[in-house]
UniProtKB/TrEMBL annotation, chain A:
Family: Belongs to the binding-protein-dependent transport system permease family.
Family matches, as Pfam families: BPD_transp_1
Gene3D superfamilies for this protein: MetI-like
Transmembrane segments: 20-40, 80-100, 121-145, 165-188, 209-234, 270-291
Gene Ontology cellular-component annotations: plasma membrane
Span of domain ABC transmembrane type-1: 76-291
PROSITE patterns: ABC_TM1 (PS50928)
Name of the protein described by the UniProt record: ABC transporter permease
Main location: membrane
Location(s), subcellular: Cell membrane
Membrane topology: Multi-pass membrane protein
Organism: Paenibacillus graminis
Superkingdom classification of source: Bacteria
Length: 304, 322
């Protein structure tokens, strides 16, 4: 009797959350059904039910059609380049946090922390608007440089295909560095005070304390975040690259997410873009599980 | 010799005391140098973070022709506020403001309510399939079908050109649920048990016991989700063609884009020399763009300093158990 009422109680609790699980199913799981578009020859005005089934045609076209292969290779190169850059500099937030907590003047430290986390809270559209104000041909930087007489004609910072990877890395870092440091600051705050004292008694210099006390206690956090970053290697997102793209930098700025968007929304090639989307999601899941497994093997605990 | 530098040994104490003094002196000079470098580097980075905002603000209140020539660098010149008066006369801008505000308020209320309830429910021990449903929720943080399949789904659900598309998909937010769940689990179990013994049901416990003590974490969730809603651009881009549903972010993007194609054209025609012909149109696009930027960023600039300390704490609570 008692166990029966307990069971009905536990089912009632599930019923309370079930509307939310339905929402999740609709907006997070049902889109997986959209993958079927990759197996049809889908042209927008005609409904999917009347589109011819073509099997793996679009997947084959990704490796057979020379134009598409070249395009895709460039896109993959961009994706790897830009994700690679951010992984290469993934230690920056950690260093930022370490040196920020070295500042003894509390007010100055709080001020720096407030100011540097601000960019994280504005959208990429706003970042682009700021970038445009600074670096467009009649922007502040060009105005300043020509006032000083350093340049005759404006430097086209934004319509430039040469350093796109670096500039995209710069803007992403500008936006997120201060905020990403917060986790490390939390980790530093939780370091046992006696470790510092022991180090100072042993006569360690400031840099030695950082190297032998602070850094080692940061590494687990760093490791977890690095793993997560590697797992989402292919997911650069769309917004940043979408707002910064223009006719001049198109070749070097297109990452997978933007390429998929441009193919479908710009060119109407839904089926092939869904095919790429699908491969990307599958590879991401495999990456996530491998990294998770690797983490379990090395550290005894997973990241997910 | 190098051994002596690292530490004191009892039998050489006298000898080493001179050294230790010397070490201290060395330490303090390198310390000072390190401090100086730290201060300079952080001041520089802080400047880079703040200056773009400052620059736009002084440009919007300066004379538009000076601003268009890029002459406003450190101080405003020819101060006026006409830009802010004019910009609200642009058709569609008020409407976009209302849409952005509406989605922010409604979306935030829905997300906070759902996150609070689900966070609380997932902290309950005795729910049928709890572990499964929790994973079902969390996995969506790491895995999605991709942007185009998502778009096609939304279209088949008739959520294109529909206000609901702005607020419904973000109702169940896994990250916020983790934050609330972690918080609820850190509160003493006796609170809920006592209420339960007094005959309170699940909803009463949620409403009377959990909600009041969860205020700090819910405020964090609210501010995050409000910022997300206000900043959202991608859903308008993908799902909306009806200009009545345009958000402020979308309008701003369109203005920058017009300006950028305009300035590109001017540059190509005049091959680098200052364009005189289209100066008047150019200066209006510049001033409009900057003023709209300030209107879009203002709510964040106003809210941010008040809540900053608050959500830093919130994120640390959530980070303890990720």
């Amino acid at each position: 009797m008692r166990s029966h009422s307990m069971r009905s109680n536990s089912i009632r609790k599930f019923l309370y959350i079930s509307p939310f699980m339905v929402l999740l199913a609709v907006f997070a799981y049902y889109p997986l059904y959209g993958w079927v578009y990759a197996f049809f020859d889908y042209m927008p005005p005609i409904p999917l039910s009347q589109a011819p089934f073509v099997g793996l045609k679009w997947f084959r076209s990704l490796v057979e059609n020379q134009v598409k292969v070249d395009q895709l290779l460039q896109v993959i190169k961009n994706t790897f380049g830009m994700s690679g850059l951010s992984i290469l500099f993934s230690w920056l937030p950690m260093i930022f946090a370490i040196f920020l907590t070295e500042i003894k003047a509390v007010r100055f430290r709080k001020f720096i922390q407030t100011v540097t986390t601000l960019p994280n809270f504005i959208s990429w559209v706003l970042v682009y608007s700021l970038a445009f104000t600074m670096f467009s041909s009649e922007g502040v930087v060009n105005g300043f440089l020509s006032q000083l007489g350093l340049i005759q004609s404006p430097v086209l910072f934004l319509q430039n295909s040469d350093h796109v990877w670096i500039t995209m890395w710069f803007w992403a870092t500008w936006k997120t560095l201060g905020w990403s440091a917060i986790l490390y600051i939390a980790a530093i705050m939780s370091i046992d005070e006696s470790l510092y004292e022991a180090a100072y008694v042993d006569g360690a210099t400031r840099m030695q304390v950082i190297r032998h006390v602070v850094l080692p206690s940061m590494l687990p956090t760093y490791f977890v975040l690095l793993m997560l970053q590697i797992a989402s290697f292919l997911n650069n997102g769309l917004e940043q690259y979408f707002v910064f793209q223009n006719a001049f930098n198109k070749d070097t700025i297109q990452v997978l997410d933007l390429y998929v968007y441009n193919l479908a929304m710009g060119g109407g090639s839904y089926s092939v873009s869904v095919a790429i989307s699908m491969l990307k999601s599958l590879i991401s899941v495999v990456l996530l599980f491998s990294v998770n497994g690797l983490s379990k093997m090395l550290r005894g605990e997973g990241i997910v | 010799m190098s051994d002596n530098l690292t530490g004191l040994t009892p039998n050489a104490a006298d000898h080493n005391s001179r050294f230790s003094k010397k070490i201290k002196m060395q330490v303090s000079t390198t310390d000072k140098m390190i401090s100086a470098i730290i201060y300079i580097a952080f001041t520089l980075f802080a400047f880079i973070c703040v200056y773009p905002f400052y620059s736009i603000i002084i440009n919007t209140i300066s004379a538009n022709d000076l601003s268009a020539k890029g002459e406003i660098v450190f101080w405003p010149k020819g101060i006026h506020f006409q830009n802010y008066v004019d910009v609200f006369k642009i058709p569609g801008l008020w409407n976009a403001f209302v849409i952005s505000l509406g989605r922010t308020v409604i979306g935030t209320l829905l997300t906070v309510g759902a996150s609070a309830f689900l966070g609380f429910m997932f902290a309950q021990e005795d729910m049928w399939g709890k572990k499964f449903w929790y994973r079902f929720t969390i996995i969506t943080m790491f895995f999605n079908a991709g942007i185009i399949p998502w778009y096609l789904t939304m279209r088949s659900l008739h959520l294109t050109n529909n206000f609901l598309a702005y607020v419904l998909p973000s109702v169940v937010a896994p990250f916020f649920i983790i934050l609330v769940k972690t918080f609820v689990e850190s509160t003493p179990k006796e609170l809920q048990q006592a209420a339960s013994i007094d005959g309170a049901g699940t909803f009463t416990i949620f409403y009377k016991v959990i909600l009041p003590i969860s205020k700090p974490i819910l405020a964090t969730v609210a501010i995050f989700s409000a910022v997300n809603q206000w900043n959202s651009f991608q859903d308008t881009l993908l799902l909306v063609t009806d200009s009545k549903l345009y958000s402020l972010q979308f309008i701003l993007y369109n203005y920058i884009n017009q300006a950028s194609s305009l300035s590109t054209m001017v540059n190509l025609q005049n091959a680098g020399s200052t364009a005189m012909a289209s100066l008047s149109t150019k200066q209006t696009t510049t001033s409009i763009r900057m003023t709209v930027t300030i209107i879009v960023v203002a709510p964040i600039l106003l809210v941010y300093p008040i809540f900053q300390r608050f959500f830093v704490k919130g994120i640390i609570i959530g980070a303890v158990k990720g």
